[in-house]
Backbone:
């Protein structure tokens, strides 16, 4: 498939196009221009490194939403074996915005749950653009309880702009479904590891984001609201999204600085969308190490550590 480029990636796109054009000309004319192509490729590699190294928070927001960025099911295929998807919340229906089931992660049986966006228009509608309704969170809760019943660790993967704010979701108890998940996850009697793989949007992300470890991939975001939503509230104008992104401090480095993260997972050069297998390998190594550590902890210590970790989040002053 042709690679998609964001606006700030245009210089990379132009250089890539020149390399492809030059390579094609050399083949057609029978000319040896390998040295020239090699120089341009080296120049492009430097440009890629500099572009991503110096990306601001708005550009990181765009990267987290990159149309080619791997989604949860892409990582399922690259990281897990024997995935058995389970559907429905046994109360209302099935929600395509949240996917989950049992699987094997490097020989370890686990339960996995994640947000799933869509690639084309048909899938985006079926997945509701990755924004779950209450039945999605109740399906996730059902899977968490299943994991607890059989003593299986839980791995969650966050990638949503937020919970669906529609009237139908409110009628079916969106806020209660999210709150219930927060409560249940905080005391779930198995290890829980949460990873942001794209956007982490408000309560829609938190509903599957409470656990013993929280990781973010290098070019992802996590925030109480999207930059556009913040701009609409504060400036009454969504065009101030870039300023809002800076104010929200939503990057992985920001959250690590606030002490909210257990680690940043590096991505392949140019981002996860350039190398799915490489991104999956890097993520898998981090998750495997964390999982092995958590599985050795006695249950009482695991729950006590989780409680203390959650209580230590945020900054406040007593009057």
Residues:
């Amino acid at each position: 498939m042709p690679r998609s480029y964001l606006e700030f990636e245009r210089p990379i796109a132009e250089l890539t196009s020149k390399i492809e054009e030059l390579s094609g000309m050399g083949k057609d004319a029978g000319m040896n221009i390998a040295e020239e192509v090699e120089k341009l490729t080296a120049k492009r590699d430097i440009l890629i490194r500099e572009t991503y190294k110096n990306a601001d928070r708005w550009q990181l927001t765009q990267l987290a939403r990159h149309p080619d960025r791997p989604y949860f099911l892409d990582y399922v295929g690259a990281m897990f074996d024997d995935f058995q998807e389970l559907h429905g919340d046994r109360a209302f229906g099935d929600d395509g915005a949240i996917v989950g089931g049992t699987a094997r992660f490097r020989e370890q049986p686990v339960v996995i749950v994640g947000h799933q966006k869509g690639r084309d228009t048909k899938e985006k509608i079926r997945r509701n653009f990755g924004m779950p309704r209450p039945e999605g969170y109740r399906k996730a809760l059902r899977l968490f309880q299943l994991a607890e019943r059989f003593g299986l660790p839980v791995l969650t993967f966050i990638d949503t702009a937020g919970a669906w704010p529609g009237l139908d979701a409110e009628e079916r108890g969106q806020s209660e479904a999210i709150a219930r998940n927060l409560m249940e996850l905080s005391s779930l009697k198995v290890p829980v590891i949460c990873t942001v793989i794209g956007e982490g949007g408000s309560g829609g992300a938190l509903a599957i984001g409470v656990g013993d470890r929280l990781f973010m991939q290098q070019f992802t975001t996590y925030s109480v609201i999207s930059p556009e939503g913040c701009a609409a509230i504060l400036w009454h104008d969504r065009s101030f999204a870039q300023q809002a992104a800076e104010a929200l401090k939503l990057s992985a480095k920001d959250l690590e600085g606030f002490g909210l993260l257990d680690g940043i997972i590096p991505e392949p050069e140019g981002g996860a969308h350039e190398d799915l297998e490489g991104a999956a390998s890097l993520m898998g190594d981090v998750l495997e190490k964390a999982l092995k550590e958590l599985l050795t902890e006695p249950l009482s210590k695991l729950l006590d550590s989780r409680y203390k970790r959650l209580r230590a989040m945020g900054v406040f002053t007593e009057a």
Remarks:
- The chain has a mean pLDDT of 93.
